[in-house]
Automatic annotation (TrEMBL):
PROSITE patterns: PROTEIN_KINASE_DOM, PROTEIN_KINASE_ST. GO terms for molecular function: ATP binding; protein kinase activity. This is Protein kinase domain-containing protein. GO terms for cellular component: plasma membrane. Residues 223-516 form the Protein kinase domain. Coiled coil: none annotated. The lineage of its organism: Eukaryota, Viridiplantae, Streptophyta, Embryophyta, Tracheophyta. One of its GO terms (biological process) is response to other organism. Residues 1-24 form the signal peptide. InterPro entries: Kinase-like_dom_sf, LysM2_CERK1_LYK3_4_5, LysM3_LYK4_5, NFP_LYK_LysM1, Plant_RLK_LysM, Prot_kinase_dom, Ser/Thr_kinase_AS. It holds the Pfam family LysM2_CERK1_LYK3_4_5.
Length: 536
């Protein structure tokens, strides 16, 4: 039997797409809904406004099965629903285990709380921060702000083991909807590549009614906002009144191919225009947060194009600074170079060892490392990133080889092996570019197929320090500690070993570069080096 066959009553649904999009009965929910540190008491964040005909009603939620909430009983308990009703509506037995990611319809009692917002309450024993509870456990059916408002406990002091009340998003039909025959509203979890038309067809409801229920109807205003998909504090970008698409793009400040600088709430932002499927990059960036990784501020879909909004890095890509023949004659000091290398290493260490699942960036290069106003590095462009299937050093396989020539590890090029050691190899190449001031293509000139040949005169010969003059970036004018330069060259050499198991992990690299950075700062102050030999 079709899972929706028993929903024979007139029905409309509210669109919810965690963790990056929540459509309300009235307005969309913006990025603030998922950022616990943002003070936002707007209607869209705390719940749907009590504008229905009744203060209490029967409503329906949708939930996608995920362990440990993959049985009728566990889902019913989590969402405070009657398991017999869940079983009946979804045409399964009460003791059934539900396959992963399968949509489950859950009936709940929806009530107007305090005369302001509709909600259905359940309880939960705290085992994670509000953010994770709202967006992972409850899949966007609640928000950080709603949890804090309901329980009066700030996110910063939420105790593990506390029993909290969780307000779930629901609503009752308005008078107009009731007059049109609508008896119930269902909060639906939107997936990528779904649109209002396809969802309406799936539920057998009127397309226009769905638009109106979610305030998605196109009013054709000259300056209408595009729909926003978001996970942090972000405001919809509005088209300037009177400007057409071409005029608008021409007036924006061009940064690089399809990337523009815009202004949101008075702050600069990098806006990247994209076509096709952007779900992979958005999915990855919604799961990571680190100072050395570029932050996705929001996503906008308008006129058939995606616009990804990132934090703005004032000093642009590393490629505009590091090469000694750059047009602007920018020069990075020794200490600045080591700090940038350490920043990149820390960003990679985070995605390799501190995210669940761990991720492989797969496209580390100088153009994908951005520098902020303090010349601190942030890794960008996660379009090729994928989860690492296993512990560091273990392999996954692919037949689809994509990346940037010169940065791709041999095991990936030859056999399609994927592990975190791909990023380690690319980091070694990047480190070579930082030391020499040469592009990777120039580094390959005159070597017999492997970049270790470039390093050999410095790290494998007795007079290695004497060979630094020909190896190091001439724009440094020999203003660097020779002993430390040899050590950093050694780190680069270890990263580009042909055998991935012989390469260090990013945690080890971070430790080495941290010690080198500390000594470099001391050298910069005194122009003398001491203690460097203790961490070879």
């Amino acid at each position: 039997m079709d899972v929706f066959a028993l929903l024979i009553f007139p029905l409309l649904f509210l669109l919810i797409s965690p963790p990056w999009l929540i459509h309300a009965q009235q307005p969309y929910v913006g990025l603030a809904a998922n950022a616990c540190d943002i003070a936002d008491n707007s209607t869209s964040v705390l719940g749907y406004t009590c504008n229905g005909l009744n203060t209490t009603c029967q409503a329906y939620l949708t939930f996608r099965s995920q362990p440990p909430y993959n049985t009728v009983s566990s889902i019913s308990k989590l969402l405070n629903s009657d398991p017999s009703q869940v079983s009946q509506i979804n045409s399964v037995s009460e003791n059934s285990t539900i396959e992963p990611d399968k949509l489950v319809i859950v009936p709940v009692k929806c009530s107007c709380t305090g005369g302001e917002f509709y909600q259905s309450n359940t309880s939960y024993i705290v085992d994670n921060p509000y953010f994770s509870i709202a967006n992972n456990t409850f899949e966007g059916l609640s928000t950080c702000q709603a949890l804090q408002a309901q329980n009066g406990i700030p996110a910063t002091t939420l105790p593990i083991g506390a029993n909290i009340s969780v307000p779930l998003r629901c609503a009752c039909p308005t008078k107009n909807q009731s007059d049109d025959g609508v008896k119930y509203l269902l909060s639906y979890l939107v997936s990528w590549n779904q649109d209002v038309s396809s969802i309406s067809t799936m539920f057998g409801v009127d397309y226009k009614n769905t638009l109106e229920a979610n305030e998605l109807k196109n009013k054709k205003k000259k300056h209408a906002s595009a729909s926003v998909i978001t996970s942090q504090s972000f405001e919809a970008i509005k088209k300037p009144e009177g400007k057409n698409k071409v005029e608008e793009e021409e007036s924006a400040e061009f940064l690089e191919r399809s990337v523009y600088r815009g202004t949101i709430k008075g702050d600069f932002a990098a806006i990247k225009k994209m076509d096709g499927d952007v779900s992979q990059e958005i999915s990855v960036l919604n799961k990571i947060s680190h100072f050395n990784l570029i932050c996705l501020s929001g996503v906008c879909f308008h006129d058939g194009h995606w616009y990804l909004v990132y934090e703005y890095a004032n000093n642009g890509p590393l490629s505009g600074w590091i090469y000694h023949d750059n047009i602007d004659k920018r020069i990075l000091s020794w200490t600045q170079r080591i700090q940038i290398a350490l920043d990149v290493a820390m960003g990679l260490n985070y995605i390799h060892n501190y995210t669940s699942p761990p991720f492989v960036h797969k496209d580390l290069k100088t153009t994908n490392v951005l520098l902020d106003s303090e010349l601190r590095a942030k890794i960008a462009n996660f379009g090729l990133a994928r989860s690492a299937d296993g512990q560091e050093g273990e392999f996954a396989l692919t037949r689809h080889i994509v990346g940037t020539k010169g940065y791709m590890a041999p095991e990936y090029l030859e056999n399609g092996f994927i592990s975190t050691k791909l990023d380690v190899y690319a980091f070694g190449v990047l480190l070579l570019e930082i030391l020499t001031g040469k592009e990777v293509s120039a580094l390959y000139e005159g070597v017999n197929g492997h970049l270790s040949d470039v390093l050999s005169p410095v790290i494998h010969e007795e007079n290695g320090k004497e060979n630094l003059g020909e190896f190091m970036d001439p724009s440094l004018q020999e203003s660097y500690p020779a002993e430390l330069a040899v050590l950093v060259a050694g780190v680069a050499d270890s990263c580009i070993k042909n055998d991935p198991s012989a390469r260090p992990g990013m945690a080890e690299i971070v430790q080495s570069l941290s010690r080198i950075m500390t000594t470099s700062l001391n050298w910069e102050k005194s122009k003398t080096v001491s203690g460097y030999h203790s961490f070879t």
